[in-house]
Amino acid sequence: MKDLSRDHYDSVAMLLHWAIAALILANIPLGAFSEQIEAGLEASAMWLHKSIGLTVLLLSLARLAWRLTHRPPPPVMEGWRGRLAGAVHWAFYALIILVPLTGWMRSSSSGYPLRWFELFDVPKFAIAPKSAEAAAVVTAHEWLAWTMAALIALHVSAALHHGWVRRDGVVRRMWPQAASG
Ligand code: HEM
Ligand code: HEM
After folding, report:
1. 170 CB under 6 A from ligand 2?
2. Residue 120 sits in which domain range?
3. Fewer Cβ in 10 A, N or C end of the chain?
4. CB 137 near ligand 1, within 6 Å
């Protein structure tokens, strides 16, 4: 079988992929369990959730810009698998921007201050509390975040399948060691 790991992503694409993945994997439980976390801790969990999320937004804009200006390695698969992988990848580029953006909009209508890691204030969108827009962005943030979680499950299953079952070198395309190879 052709060893696909000869082609690999550049180091900036890899760094952004793994940094964003780690931050998102931390932020989904922080958002989802915020209500279950003890009352006193809830505020600090949300503070972290918002700061991590805003960081994801910044990194994702940089990542999209990098992706549009740097050619990735050639696609791995033909047929429906290749089309599915491509569709999921582009859906991710949209979601890693839209999920934090709707979170930011959602927080704009609340009375809490919005600060990035206690370092500086982040401006808010003009969304009135209890308005139709405020309700819409709450729903949007929730649905987009869960859609992203489902696609992550699919994407990670596919990566594990390539790594452990097909052993075709696809995972090494995104694995830093490959950068020197
Ligand atoms: C990687 C980015 C993000 C992910 C994956 C994410 C994910 C989630 C998830 C899964 C929930 C629980 C669903 C719900 O109860 O509605 C949630 C809730 C929430 N998120 Fe995010 N979020 C992100 C970014 C942000 C940002 C940037 C902000 C604000 C600046 C934000 C503000 C909120 C708020 C206020 C809640 C409601 C928490 C509660 O119910 O008490 N999120 N988020
Ligand atoms: C958790 C959030 C994650 C997001 C949003 C994400 C997003 C993406 C995107 C958009 C691409 C396509 C890059 C491009 O062609 O421009 C990609 C590729 C890849 N991802 Fe992820 N990823 C995540 C997590 C993971 C995890 C946990 C793994 C491994 C278990 C993984 C393994 C890979 C691999 C191996 C590729 C390269 C596929 C190829 O060569 O065609 N990803 N990821």
Report:
1. yes
2. 4-180
3. N
4. no
